[in-house]
Amino acid sequence: HATQNPEDPLRSRFFLQDGTLDLSTIKANLPSADLAFLSACQTSRGDEKFTEEVLHLAAGMLAAGYRSVVATMWSIRDTHAPGLAESFYAYLLRKSADNGRVIDGSLAAFALHHAARELMEKLDDSNESFMSWVPYVHWGV
Prior knowledge:
This is CHAT domain-containing protein. Residues 1-140 form the CHAT domain. It comes from Coprinellus micaceus. This protein is of the alpha+beta class. Helices cover 35% and strands 16% of the residues. The chain has one domain (2-140). It has 4 helices and 6 strands; from the N terminus they run E-E-E-E-H-E-H-H-H-E. Strands 1-2-3 form a 3-stranded antiparallel sheet, with no helix packed on it. It has a 3-stranded mixed sheet with strand order 4-5-6, with helices on both faces.
């Protein structure tokens, strides 16, 4: 899980099994940071008070040096999130290997599109399908 803190964006945080991880503790200038897949609720949620600002966890990961970030704009369903992530990584690993790399974060947007499309087809064109894939967004390259 995750939560945004629009009053103090650096106190936006991830909830982990053994505590929390505030955005302020993530060090900037990570030279090998390629891809962050934030499969938690609201990791890319903005705030209506700051409509012209990008104040969310995904933007913080980009500022820390990640080249590509997949995040969610609102709450996601635990029912379908693992399958979407599995499809995302299966596509990403397969296509990265085709390019001679272990993981190529520049393919993240394509992998997210593939995973969302696969989930749409699995759930047909229902309201459940739409609410299961549409919260996911890609930031970066």
